[in-house]
Amino acid sequence: MTVDQAASLHQEFTQVRKDSETLCAPLEIEDYGIQTIPDVSPPKWHLAHTSWFFETFLLKPFLKHYHEFDEHYAHLFNSYYEQIGTYHPRAERGLLSRPTVKQIYAYRQHVNAAMLVLLAQETLPDYPEIVRRCIIGLHHEQQHQELLLTDIKHIFSYNPLRPVYRELSMGNTNHTADLFWHEQPGGVYEIGADAAGHFAYDNETPRHKVYLNSFRIASRLVTNGEYLEFMHAGGYYNPAYWLSDGWKIVQTQHWQAPLYWVKQDMQWYEMTLGGVRKLDAHAPVSHVSLYEAHAYANWCNKRLPREAEWEIVARQQPITGNLRDAGYLQPMPADLQGLAQFYGDVWEWTQSSYSPYPGYRADSGALGEYNSKFMSSQVVLRGGSCVTPQNHIRATYRNFFYPGDRWQFSGIRLAEDIT
Amino acid sequence: MTVDQAASLHQEFTQVRKDSETLCAPLEIEDYGIQTIPDVSPPKWHLAHTSWFFETFLLKPFLKHYHEFDEHYAHLFNSYYEQIGTYHPRAERGLLSRPTVKQIYAYRQHVNAAMLVLLAQETLPDYPEIVRRCIIGLHHEQQHQELLLTDIKHIFSYNPLRPVYRELSMGNTNHTADLFWHEQPGGVYEIGADAAGHFAYDNETPRHKVYLNSFRIASRLVTNGEYLEFMHAGGYYNPAYWLSDGWKIVQTQHWQAPLYWVKQDMQWYEMTLGGVRKLDAHAPVSHVSLYEAHAYANWCNKRLPREAEWEIVARQQPITGNLRDAGYLQPMPADLQGLAQFYGDVWEWTQSSYSPYPGYRADSGALGEYNSKFMSSQVVLRGGSCVTPQNHIRATYRNFFYPGDRWQFSGIRLAEDIT
Amino acid sequence: MTVDQAASLHQEFTQVRKDSETLCAPLEIEDYGIQTIPDVSPPKWHLAHTSWFFETFLLKPFLKHYHEFDEHYAHLFNSYYEQIGTYHPRAERGLLSRPTVKQIYAYRQHVNAAMLVLLAQETLPDYPEIVRRCIIGLHHEQQHQELLLTDIKHIFSYNPLRPVYRELSMGNTNHTADLFWHEQPGGVYEIGADAAGHFAYDNETPRHKVYLNSFRIASRLVTNGEYLEFMHAGGYYNPAYWLSDGWKIVQTQHWQAPLYWVKQDMQWYEMTLGGVRKLDAHAPVSHVSLYEAHAYANWCNKRLPREAEWEIVARQQPITGNLRDAGYLQPMPADLQGLAQFYGDVWEWTQSSYSPYPGYRADSGALGEYNSKFMSSQVVLRGGSCVTPQNHIRATYRNFFYPGDRWQFSGIRLAEDIT
Amino acid sequence: MTVDQAASLHQEFTQVRKDSETLCAPLEIEDYGIQTIPDVSPPKWHLAHTSWFFETFLLKPFLKHYHEFDEHYAHLFNSYYEQIGTYHPRAERGLLSRPTVKQIYAYRQHVNAAMLVLLAQETLPDYPEIVRRCIIGLHHEQQHQELLLTDIKHIFSYNPLRPVYRELSMGNTNHTADLFWHEQPGGVYEIGADAAGHFAYDNETPRHKVYLNSFRIASRLVTNGEYLEFMHAGGYYNPAYWLSDGWKIVQTQHWQAPLYWVKQDMQWYEMTLGGVRKLDAHAPVSHVSLYEAHAYANWCNKRLPREAEWEIVARQQPITGNLRDAGYLQPMPADLQGLAQFYGDVWEWTQSSYSPYPGYRADSGALGEYNSKFMSSQVVLRGGSCVTPQNHIRATYRNFFYPGDRWQFSGIRLAEDIT
């Protein structure tokens, strides 16, 4: 590692840590503590847990004389690392009024200061491992930044006062780009991340061969307007389109539209981080579960892409799009007449289960729990969303949620076989 | 109503309203929003709901040109009055970060100012009804003051940081007064509240005759030390002492001691509003359910008193004791060698179901929902506790909870038949 | 005990035991094993459990050289006697295909034969206790005979094939007797069963004084036609009439009519043991919960009777009515122009919680669990129903169910205060 | 179709239909109706549903003048075909005493007779489709034959009387064959079933290319003895080996051993269709969930095979093994010193999620619901078990269950990467 690289890490650390706090600037103290459902964590928990990550995996093992901020935090802010020790029950994160928001910001300061000391110790024999873990910690924090925004949206959605996180720009696009089908010939491809390259999570490795049949993939995402046609065609009332597990949820949860859609006076509205606004028919549909994505695709006689199919097409595109840095914090219509929206707007459901790549080895120790233990019953999503930081996403990135989850910005890109 | 009476009501209104806020003074903003279980409400909800009560039952119907503080509050802070309109689901009170604590204090100010205007309009034809409802509103607020303290205790108990509400005095009594049995001859007695007398809730009326057999009642409450003997005798493991519904809870909830008892290093501790402290064997046992009270009494070959039995003995005692005004906020040992602890310390479980007195008529309109609709499956408790305001309790007062409830300061006084 | 008494007990034993089997004669083998809800037991379980009762409380303790039929039955057919030993989980009674129906009938034979031997040993020093327990066992079996019929009705109601237990007579009464109000002056009354008299359960004792205000009680039961008026007036949609706990059930269980009512082609039908038939407007409403009974009474500006009120009026009536022996197995219209329907037709909900009488002592040993441990959260019903054996019911008899229970033949008689 | 083929189908129909009844021969009438958990169906339901399949998909559409046996059966015995009409709730199959066992056998007779008439109409234009569906119906019935045995085992396991289905032979093998690792070089392989070949379900098609890395696969299944080592090493107490979802179940369901294992006097026993017997350390471990299989493999530093890996090795083996026809009805030790146990003994968990093959098209119409709608959250198992009919299994066969399911005969074969 060169001096420049070290300075750059130092700077990136400071920036990412600051970003989390900037995201929370619009919040009232009371907003920091709410947990609406077990999947959602209180904003202050995110702020504390990301600090706990640096404290646990870097400061405690590597910084001599490091003084723990509060001995209870090891338990309180461990998310799920069984090998680290006990952790507070996930569903009870919203029951903790203490530590206060002020104390948690002090905790962040404490951790930041110590981390800068540690990052300056470039002559330590463990320095390469310190750098490696620090980079993981920063990516980890960026993931939680995304969760901060999706969770705040969910928290506000439970409040009849309809709080607004921030005024949002509506953009200027009032049409939908035509959809065309990109064809990709079959054959053996390599997917996944190289061991020696840019940062990647262990679940993106190793790079490996897959055989793919020829296929077509849609040039852009499915729009709200297109999804409304499915609804008008009775999509939520016809089991023929649905996976069996999905149909059970439709019936027991009485799903009739994507999450956050609200019908008022015969008109559809949508709750956004900028408040309730009229549904934009040109914008990509969002906050749908895999079950809804699958049913929609079925209704169209199409299918969802496999994750390998998505990756080999997406990696030919530049990593730009409606990501968090664009500032919309809401999916926007595609105005580009080409392959569009692969990065940003919404996470795209694939038909691929989240499972280990051939030759996969989880990281050693507790950090190995980061990804590997979740490899059952979840589904891969690709491409990032309008609340994903630009420098966090890449073509090989594998996000994963349960097929019924809807509180993320998750949407639909279609594919089909060439026969 | 004389000028003096009006001035006194004015003053009492101001005092009671201020008391609620004084009780919240030790809280952090974050503490105001927590709801641990559906029974418990967030402190800020109590502050708002008690204001809603005055706004709904007094300001809106009687104060000309009254300007509602926020139109959403009618829904948000209605507890359960079906005839008033919709209400926010009880179990979701802790999911509301907004209105903020600051806004709720402003709401209180707004309601207080308007109420003082209304109370000054003594020439209104409705003034007697205004006074009547205002008095109910103040008693209502005092009930919520008690809940504020019991709910804060519960909220803090869920936090591994073990927050302390306030440093509490331990008192000087380190012995238990001897227990003796007060005998009361059988016959026809009158119980309940007179229509024309001091304030009473509708559920205490009408005054009516009951026939009682001769009985004995214990001179003081059961102590922690006595309850420990029951535990050491295997009380929580022997179904013979238990009501069937209670035994089911013992097994499914794994009850092994009263709520808030914690065993550390072979020693019992108790969580209090002043933090965790060593169990005082001389203090009355508290935070037991009816099922535990019943099982304990069974084990002693005694029984719980009927509410009429309790009332005819208690009304001979002065209304003094370890009530909120004493400042202990925790049950204290009896040092008096006579009939003791009828008021204060802990609410005393009776064996009487909460049901209407002969000739009972609920208040008319929505206020009739205050008490009458809860007259099933609940049990009467008598005498107030260490967090009940002194001027709120009386011999005829009927409190009621479900037999499995334990988060109130609830304890045991024994009785027996004379045969 | 005289020779005649002994002969009579012998004869009664034989008769009651035979009755249980006669009631099961219309069943297919498959019907014997079904448990629809935890409250309902499979018919074969009733047949076995009543035998287990004699085996456990009589044969094992008193019959020398008694040979247990099957050692597993002690566990399988114990209902809830904690002091006897373990018992099979109540909710899993329907999961036992073995023992077969044939084996259970053999078990009954085995127990019957041994019991007749025991009952012939009149010179045993324990003979009085044997007689006492045998009589309890016979009343116990009669209670289960009633449950057999209510449970079979429930079991058949879950089957889309709508099985018929037996063709039932419709009776000849196609009008409703006029309702008048019987007045009873207030004062001290004695209620409950004498220690030395006819058989009574321990929960009916001791006879004791109560003070009652003057009241009026309806001369007959509320009819289906009258209850329909409540429904047409929006009774199931107006929370003002309902107890709070009841209103929650109305909403979560979507109650809109009594259990077993079915609407077809704008017409109400009722499921009966004789199959589905048109609702008889003149017959008493049945299969309502306490909550529905209370809401109906509230809507009428009446109330439910206290159990003492019911008893002092009912005991002046002869014990006749539409009981099981009448053979209708369905409530029938009152044609009598006087105090009517106190016995039979439907169990009448009172407003009295099921609690111990003053001076109550539970039976000793495990038999004490028969009644006493259920004295919380349940409500007293009086008078027997159309499936209660004639010689099983009496004025002092206290039946008890939870306020939400509806699978028994339970109905409504109104009362009111005289003011 | 030749005359011979038609005769052979006729014969096969008769044989398969008879087999279902032969499997039920050891049952008492009472056994036919039990449903222990929603996954398990009552034996009589299996007998009726398999007949409903022929009636619905063959007799009603194709047999002129076919007279439905009972119009209610269309609803009662539809399992989950949404496009066919309504169906009885799955969890309530055990609440139906009617139709009786006798009526269901009559239903089978009725359907059989009509089917033989239909199969004789070889000149019908639809005859090829009739043949196609009939073959599906027979394979469908064989699947239910397997379920009959696994469900009977589960039903008997809930009964403290420990019923025995049939006396079972113990076999003669009292050792475990050595385990060796079969190596398979990487490359592009074809897997799946040919469209034109032997019968296969739609989910096995189309035959398609996959790329596989080099790997090793174990020559035989993991034994009870080997699995015991994992248990002794604390496998059920160490979260490090477990998938996150699995660890939650271990804790909430208190899993400590495979299903049906019972510890008595410090010794492990196993419930089998032949009764409780001492655990055979040499026999393959069975009745483990995917979570347990995964944890075991993790503990060994191995992994589960992918379904494609399994298939390309297994298809080189003859389809023989401990299948139903061998009569053991219980997994048996491997005595073969080569690649062993690929067919029979236990279904082998793979690490592959159950998802559509590239180019997959579900069957058209309601029959398309047979397999396709279950392609989420389930996992593929391969190879058949000791209760699978010999002529039902093949190398391409894909069975699927949820990762927590344990009531099937499911076990473990290990694999590893070659690196």
UniProtKB/TrEMBL annotation, chains A, B, C, D:
<dbReference type="InterPro" id="IPR051043">
    <property type="entry name" value="Sulfatase_Mod_Factor_Kinase"/>
</dbReference>
<dbReference type="Pfam" id="PF03781">
    <property type="entry name" value="FGE-sulfatase"/>
</dbReference>
<dbReference type="GO" id="GO:0052699">
    <property type="term" value="P:ergothioneine biosynthetic process"/>
</dbReference>
<dbReference type="Pfam" id="PF12867">
    <property type="entry name" value="DinB_2"/>
</dbReference>
<dbReference type="InterPro" id="IPR005532">
    <property type="entry name" value="SUMF_dom"/>
</dbReference>
<comment type="pathway">
    <text>Amino-acid biosynthesis; ergothioneine biosynthesis.</text>
</comment>
<keyword id="KW-0408">Iron</keyword>
<feature type="domain" description="DinB-like">
    <location>
        <begin position="13"/>
        <end position="145"/>
    </location>
</feature>
<protein>
    <submittedName>
        <fullName>Ergothioneine biosynthesis protein EgtB</fullName>
    </submittedName>
</protein>
<dbReference type="InterPro" id="IPR016187">
    <property type="entry name" value="CTDL_fold"/>
</dbReference>
<feature type="domain" description="Sulfatase-modifying factor enzyme-like">
    <location>
        <begin position="336"/>
        <end position="415"/>
    </location>
</feature>
<dbReference type="InterPro" id="IPR017806">
    <property type="entry name" value="EgtB"/>
</dbReference>
<feature type="domain" description="Sulfatase-modifying factor enzyme-like">
    <location>
        <begin position="185"/>
        <end position="316"/>
    </location>
</feature>
<keyword id="KW-0560">Oxidoreductase</keyword>
<dbReference type="InterPro" id="IPR024775">
    <property type="entry name" value="DinB-like"/>
</dbReference>
<dbReference type="InterPro" id="IPR042095">
    <property type="entry name" value="SUMF_sf"/>
</dbReference>
